[in-house]
Amino acid sequence: MPCLYLGSKLAMENDGVIDRSKLTGMERQAIKDARHAFAAALAELGLMPHFESLSADAIDTLINAAVAGFQGSMWRQSASGEIPF
Asked: For residue 11, is pLDDT > 60?
């Protein structure tokens, strides 16, 4: 899972946040595509009204934080000898 390791490395180098200026085109598209799933989850939880005024950039920041947190945890677990799957 090279992308997991690279993403985690980038996140760790930037205080847990993925530096969006270093994302590939595919990564930028994946974050953009994730907005739909994020919006569906917000709607399901009844939270959409709290997020409707946010810009796409702000939503992308939330998605980046979730991805970085997930990848960082997977990296730490893998480094401790656990197999993350």
From this structure: no
How far apart, in whole angstroms, are the C-alpha atoms of residue 72 and residue 76? 6
CA atoms of 25 and 85, how far apart (whole Å): 27
pLDDT digits (tens, 9 = 90+) for 28-56: 899 999 999 999 999 999 999 999 999 99
Q: Which tens digits make up the pLDDT trace of 51-83?
A: 999 999 999 999 988 988 888 888 888 887 767
Q: Are 51 and 59 in contact (CB under 8 A)?
A: yes
* Helix intervals (H) in the chain: 2-13, 25-44, 48-51, 56-79
- Are 8 and 75 in contact by the 8 Å Cβ rule? The answer is yes
The identity of residue 76, as a single letter, is R
Q: Where are the domains of the chain?
A: 2-17+25-79
Closest CA to 35 of 22, 19, 48: 48
